[in-house]
Each structure stands twice: as C-alpha cells, then as structure tokens.
Design goal:
CATH topology of chain A: SH3 type barrels
Helix content of chain A: under 10%
Radius of gyration of chain A: 20 Å
Structural class of chain B: alpha/beta
CATH architecture of the domain at 53-95 and 205-418 in chain B: 3-Layer(aba) Sandwich
Strand content of chain A: 35-45%
CATH class of chain A: Mainly Beta
Strand content of chain B: 5-15%
Number of strands of chain B: 13
Shape of chain B: globular
Order of helices and strands of chain A: EEHEEEE
Oligomer: heterodimer
Strand order of the largest sheet of chain B: 1-2-10-7-8-9-13
Number of domains of chain A: 1
Shape of chain A: flat
CATH class of the domain at 53-95 and 205-418 in chain B: Alpha Beta
Distance between the termini of chain A: 47 Å
Strand order of the largest sheet of chain A: 2-3-5-6
Number of helices of chain A: 1
Structural class of chain A: mainly beta
Number of strands of chain A: 6
CATH architecture of chain A: Roll
Largest sheet of chain B: 7 strands, mixed
Chain lengths: 99, 478
C-alpha cells in the first residue's frame, strides 16, 4: 500500500499524514519516563491537496472538509486488524469437552 | 498569533470549555468542593419521556432484555441448594453503533444541533467515539474524534484500532495519537479551532442519556417478574454508566435495587505508560479508570463531572481479564450471543454474585457491546500472546495484569474479588482535603461529601479526622 518515495501521488488520493504534536521537551509534566522521552505523534487521513511523494510535507482535506498539514506517510491507508491467530485455549469452553 | 503551546492552551481551558459546552458551570458552585449536583443534572429540563423520544429518533434505546437460561442453569449446578439467581442481560449492542454509549452521545448530539453547533468533538478511545460519530451523522453534524491509538512504535491495540475504523466508517475525522494524557490538549486545540460542541462523556447530557437504560431495566423486570431487580451489575470506568443507570432505576421506583460496580483488575499497569499501553488486554472497563474516577470524579474534561459513581454504588467487584474472556466465550457457546469482551465485564461478576444469591432473585447485566475484528476476545488474546504475555488455562487467581492471562478451567473458578468501598471513600475524602483543607470545610462541604461518597456527614468527619492524625487512613488504590 505504501508507495515508494519515487512514486508521485496524485492530488485527491486518500492518504495518511503524520506529524509531531509535541516534542519530548514540550510534553506534559509527570509522565512516566518511557512516555516522556517520546514525541506525541498524530496521524490523520484525508484527500491529498496537491501531487506529492511519500515523505513530502503536504496538505490534506479530511472527510469533514478540514485542512491539515503533515508528512505524507501512507497512500490509501486501510485497516488490517483481524480476529487474530486462533487461541486454542478458548476453543473448548462451553462445549462437551468441558461440560 | 495565538500561542498554541501546551501550557498556553491548558491555561485557556476554562474559556474553551465554556464556549464549547453551552453550559455555565459556575452557577452550580457552592465552594471549591461542593456544588449543586441535582440543579446541574436538572438544568437541561428534559424529562425521561423527552429523553426517550430524542433517543428513538436516532435508533437508541428499547434494547432487548434477555434471560440467560443456560448460564443461569450452569450457575445453579455449581451453587449451594436454593442458590443461583436468574441472570438477565440488556443487549445494548442493539443500539446504533453497537453499545450503550449511543445513549450518552444521543442527547449531546441533540443538544449540539439545537444550539446551532456545526459539529461535535470528543476525545475517547472507546465505543463512545463511534457512538458520537453515528449520532452526529444522523443529526447532520460534523464529527471529530481524538483517540489514543498507538504506542511509540506505532503498534495499535487491536480493540482501539477497530474503534478508529468504526469512527471513520461513520464519517468522522479521526486524530490518532500516541500514548499520553495530552490527548486533552489536542481536544482543547480542536475545540478552539472548530468552535464545535464538546461531546464530553461527563456533561449532564452524557448521563441523562443513560438514565433511560436504568429505567428500561427497572420497568421491564417489574412488568415481567412482578418486582424490581435485586441486583444490577454495571461495568465501571469513568462512572457515567453506573451513575446514569442508578439514577434511571430510581426514577422508576427501583430504589431497593443493589447497584454493583464491576471493573477488570489492571492494578500495576500505568495508564500513561508507552510500554504498558499494549500490555493491557482491556482498553476500558478497568481499574485504571474505574478507581481514580470513582475516588475523584472531577478529573475530567468538564469543570464538574456529572458522572459520580461513588455516590450511587452499593458495592464494587473486580474480575480478571482471563475470567472475562472465559465468560465471553461461554456467552457465545451457551447463549448464542457473540459480543465484545469489554461489555462482558459485568456479566463475569454477575456469575460470581448469582451463586451467592437465592434462586428467586434477579441479577441484571446492563450492557453488551458489538464485536468484530479487533474487538474480540480471540483478537485480544492473540495480540497479548504476540506481545509475550502468557496465556493459559488455570486458576484465575494467578492472573498478573500485563504478564499472565489465566483463563478459568471451570465456571466455579469465576469469582473475582470485592473491592472495599471504605477505602474508596477514604481516598475520595483525601482528594477533597487536597482541594480545600479540612479545617476550612463548611457544613455545606461536609454534607456534599457525604452525599457524594454515599455515607453520612458524621462518617465524612471521622475519615477526615483520620487524615489529620497523620494520614493513617488508607489512600485507596489510586
């Protein structure tokens, strides 16, 4: 799905941008160390405003018509979450194997 | 140019909130601690009938109340003679967007539309996002959902990734963030940029919408069985589900019904930790929200939280992740209802509690939620295993949140454990003392705290005196 940096992504394509909302030094006080040392990152989907390549700074128009800028990260971003690999431990619950 | 630094935006919090809610909270304040809770709850002026009518317009409420016959029989087989209450479940997955959260979103959406807002914003990683998106769609409002989805390696909790998908499916713009409480900062900035309505879970609208759930349960049980339910079990996170349900039960005369809070025990896992984030196999309905919100409700995105669970709970029961996964599978196999695991938290406690109750008593599980890819117990267990978490069958007492998920081998191992309400009250009173020193409390404060902690003013003073004696009182689990 993710294009290479050489592919020109046409304006109007559904894409995902990434941007940094807060750098580690801008974050809230009192965070656990493992969180405090990372930036607060954000991803947003929308229609690409102008032709660009993955990695370029771009503008998108979201599904409700708002504009956001950020780095072009993915093209046609989708969802791949699933029901997961079968977990055999639960298969027999409530069956004759465990009556 | 507007200063959008973290500190500057947080400093504008109150102004942003006021304009995005259309509700002035100052009018209810009595002191730094006390406020007129009932005046705030009644400020919308909606009757139960009006709320019901609003909800019917957008496919909310009137969900089926099922008797779980095979599960009840199974519980009776492992109980002492004469024990084993009848277990009912309110199938809230039948609401538009698949959970009881539609009830909460529905009134906010109606309010936003009535007041002329062009859209709604909410910050949530739970079912509420999809509920707001679904309700906004039906009211022709724009919707933005701010979500904590990924850790810093961009690995997403499958349950939350599914909720991102659902929000986008209903036409929302979704701002997907890494772990951290600055979700709230992004919410504030978004409210400020858009001028949209703040569809907070914790406004009076968010709670009024759940009152119909308690009322439906009370009325339907009364009509079918000739009495009010003996116990209603409620999955507790932010407290709104419990507050609204309890208030709804009271509205239809079910004052004697015991309202039990239930959470998945995730003690030991820090909620703002980038590394612990994906080691949780439940993203809501757990102690990481349930306990701190019950012991200090006013930690939310509105000045005064309408969800005040401690005020309404008669008991609090904890269950383990493994126990809930076991019951989720059992509900599917025995009762033919495949539902999401988080919604089965209270079902799990119901089994343990029903064993202690008489056969002629009734216990009601007041919600279910939709299931699907990501939001499924197999997804969560498979994900946990991929993270190096041990998954096995055995004694659920051996569960260690974030390390080991032990799925019971038999129904009689499903027990959970009670959480001491006295410790919760003590923690709550201690929080109040940090807002206003005890020696400055007036009678109004003490009476408010007594109502809010569901106890007497004398007992509030006893607990407060214990704090003064060097903090011997337990601080609770927060």
């Amino acid at each position: 799905m993710q294009g290479t940096t050489d592919d020109l992504v046409p304006a109007g394509t559904w894409v995902e941008i990434q941007r940094t909302v807060l750098t580690p030094d801008q974050r809230a006080a009192g965070l656990p160390q493992e969180t405090a040392c990372t930036p607060l990152l954000e991803w947003i989907d929308g229609f690409l405003d102008a032709d660009a390549k993955v990695g370029d700074e771009v503008v998108i128009n979201t599904i409700i018509g708002r504009q956001h800028s950020g780095v072009l990260n993915r093209v046609n971003p989708g969802y791949t979450h699933s029901f997961g690999d079968t977990v055999p431990e639960i298969l027999t619950i409530g069956t004759e194997y465990e009556s | 140019m507007t200063d959008n630094s973290y500190q500057a935006v947080m400093a504008r919090k109150n102004d942003i909130m006021r304009s995005s809610l259309g509700l002035d909270y100052d009018q209810f304040n009595l002191s730094p601690i006390a406020f007129d809770y009932e005046a705030m709850m009644n400020s919308s002026g909606y009757s139960l009938e009006e709320i019901t009518a609003i909800q019917r317009e957008t496919k909310v409420g009137g969900t089926p109340l099922h008797e779980l016959r095979r599960l009840t029989e199974a519980v009776r087989r492992i109980s002492e003679p004469g024990k084993g209450a009848r277990i009912l479940v309110k199938d809230e997955a039948a609401n538009a967007s698949g959970s009881f959260k539609a009830r909460r979103a529905s009134i906010s959406a109606f309010e936003a539309q009535s007041k002329g807002f062009k859209g709604m914003v909410t910050a949530t990683s739970g079912n509420y996002g999809a509920a707001v998106a679904s309700q906004a769609a039906q009211r022709n409002l724009k919707c933005i959902v701010v979500q904590e989805v990924y850790d810093s390696q961009r690995i997403g909790q499958p349950e939350i990734v599914e909720k991102s998908r659902a929000c986008e499916a209903y036409g929302a713009e979704v701002l997907k963030l890494t772990v951290g409480p600055e979700l709230f900062y992004v919410l504030l900035r978004t409210l400020e940029e858009t001028g949209f309505f703040n569809a907070s879970l914790y406004t009076p609208f968010g709670i009024l919408g759940v009152e119909t759930l308690g009322a439906e349960i009370g009325e339907e049980v009364q009509a079918r069985y000739g009495k009010s339910p003996d116990v209603v079990v409620v999955t507790n996170a932010g407290g709104g589900n419990l507050t609204g349900t309890a208030r709804g039960l009271r509205r239809v005369g079910a004052e004697e019904t015991t309202v039990m809070a239930v959470s998945v025990d995730l003690s030991g896992l820090h909620m703002a930790s980038d590394t612990a984030f994906n080691n949780k196999s439940f993203t809501t309905g757990h102690t990481g929200f349930g306990v701190p919100f019950a012991t200090w409700p006013d930690r939310v995105d509105v000045p005064r939280n309408a969800a005040r669970a401690l005020r309404y709970m008669d008991g609090y029961h904890l269950v383990t992740q493994g126990e809930v996964f076991y019951l989720t599978e059992l509900l599917t196999k025995m009762e033919g209802l495949e539902r999401g695991p988080a919604g089965n938290t209270s079902l799990t406690a119901a089994v343990a509690l029903a064993r202690q109750m008489d056969e002629d008593q009734i216990i009601v599980v007041q919600e279910t939620e939709y299931t699907g890819a990501g939001k499924h117990h197999n997804s969560q267990l498979s994900f946990a295993r991929s993270r190096g978490i041990e998954v096995r069958r055995g004694d659920p007492a051996d569960n260690v949140p974030g390390r080991t998920i032990v799925i019971p081998e038999r129904l009689d191992q499903v027990a959970g454990k009670p959480l001491d309400l006295e410790r919760m009250r003590a923690s709550y009173i201690k929080h109040a003392a940090s807002v206003l020193p005890v020696d400055q409390w007036s009678e109004v404060d003490i009476n408010f705290l007594a109502e809010d902690a569901n106890t007497t003013s004398e007992h509030v003073q006893e607990i407060a005196a214990g704090l003064g004696a060097g903090g011997a009182t337990s601080t609770g689990r927060n």
